[in-house]
Amino acid sequence: MTIVIVDYGMGNLFSIYNALDHVGGNPRFARDPQDLKGAKAIVVPGVGAFGSCMAQLSRFSESLLQHFQEGVPMLGICVGMQVLFEESEESPGAAGLGWISGRVVRLPAGVMIPQMGWNCLKIKQHVEMLDGISEGDMFYFVHSYYGLPEDDSVVAATTEHGVDVTAAICRDNLFATQFHPEKSGPKGLQILKNFVRAARC
Amino acid sequence: MLARRIIPCLDCDLGVPGGRVVKGIEFKQIRYAGIPWELAGQYYQDGADEIVFLDITASADRRETMTGVIKETSRSVFVPLAVGGGTSSLDQAREVFNAGADKITLNTSALKRPELIEEIAEQYGNQAVVLAIDAKRRYSLEESREIVQTDDGPCWFECSYYGGRQFTGIDALAWARRAVSLGAGEILLTSMDRDGTYDGFDIPLTDAVARRVNVPVIASGGCASPDHMLEVFNQTDASAALAASIFHFGEWSIGQVKSYLKDRGVNVRI
User: Fold this and answer.
1) Among residues B156, B185, B184, B186, which one has the least CA distance to residue B172?
2) Nearest-CA neighbor of A193 among A181, A176, A179, A183?
3) Do A115 and B2 touch (CB under 8 A)?
């Protein structure tokens, strides 16, 4: 059973690798689209600007979409969640993957930007990826932008930072978090365990 | 709302194989506290919100020891890791990030060459650059200084570097603002007057910096009890409190400190 982490050259993947390894996910990296072959589950991480992430990720987009449509469990993290949307205020003109209708917008003026630190979840849907997670549990966030889906029904959890910020989305076999489960202590590991379990099914 | 963070700091002597954690008193005397990744792992289990490693030896030939410490730690610690000491170039910063650090803390090297803040922030983002300031009260007032009122009279704060061994003449409050404009995403603010004294945080210093910058400020230096943390959270906008000795020598566990704060209305992660 292998979980594949898409390594498209954006940032340090050591943490997510170690965290998945720690919960028995047997991770490996995909540096080319063909490396996704045989993946039981796929993680799309992301740091940096939306536009530069998409510039690097776009060569994977066809293969990722195919796996998504085949029902392979997928987990987007941070900018790896934002790229699922159609576009972002951060990088006007750059197209996202567009699997989730809506756009990525900047956190409101008047709050600390980036939001950096531990904030609590308001759970909107008790999806399987949130098994073992309770209302008010805290997770580690580092971001200046957040996804705003057109259809509220994909929102699994929010957090408050000036406004209700989309913290997790869920659509079929796709789950994504604005926070970093790999940096969120035991509760974060619980989400990764849920993901590993989904990969086994 | 963001939680107030509790951060244990591990000062590392990398002059011994594998490295070890030490604790100085007023930046001088050294006590031995343990193996870096073992202590970090214990603090993680106890509920630390973040771990800070500072290489107090900070010599070039010991960089590999520090990357080893980070690698070993990041295998079992799943909260952010910040690492500082002896980083003076983007290439060196890259080694630290590649080993698994989430943030790098800069002090001496940023004072000597402020552009380093910009260079690292450009590549890794502002949130990855923590500016460490070691500040000392100066009661001899000069006109160009930013003056703060304290119980001991008005003073300004001077930045020190080389682990507190040399002074720069630079005003700490002005430096904090400038560093943030260059891209520092957080300030780790240590009071040299309080460090190792167990007298509590320097409240006027912490308050003055937190009012001047719009990035998180980590209060450091002088913490001996959860009451000191309560004080700094109630009286200033500090985002985090950092401590070493009270955790290293088992006086309080991180879990105990957090319960104490939560019972008194502070928003912390339990």
Assistant:
1) B156
2) A181
3) yes
State residue B65's pLDDT score.
84
A53 is catalytic: no
- Between 3.40.50.880, 3.90.660.20, 3.40.50.10490, 2.40.10.10, what CATH number should domain A3-200 receive? 3.40.50.880
Please tell me the distance from the alpha carbon of residue A50 to that of residue A28, in angstroms, as a whole number.
24
Please give the angle made by the CA atoms of A20, B46 and B54, to the nearest 5 degrees: 80
Q: Exposed, middle or buried by CB within 10 Å (0-12, 13-18, 19+), for A28?
A: middle
The reported pTM is 0.94
- For B97-120, b/e burial (b = at least 16 CB within 10 A) is bebbbbbbbbbbbbbeebebbebb
- Mean per-residue pLDDT, A27-47: 94
Number of Cβ within 10 Å of residue B147's Cβ equals: 14
Q: Is the pLDDT of residue B261 over 70?
A: yes
Supply the mean pLDDT for chain B: 91
Chain B residues close to A119, C-beta within 8 Å: 1-3
User: Is A78 tagged catalytic?
Assistant: yes
Taken in order of first residue, the domains within chain B and their CATH numbers are 5-263 (3.20.20.70)
Q: What is the ipTM of this complex?
A: 0.93
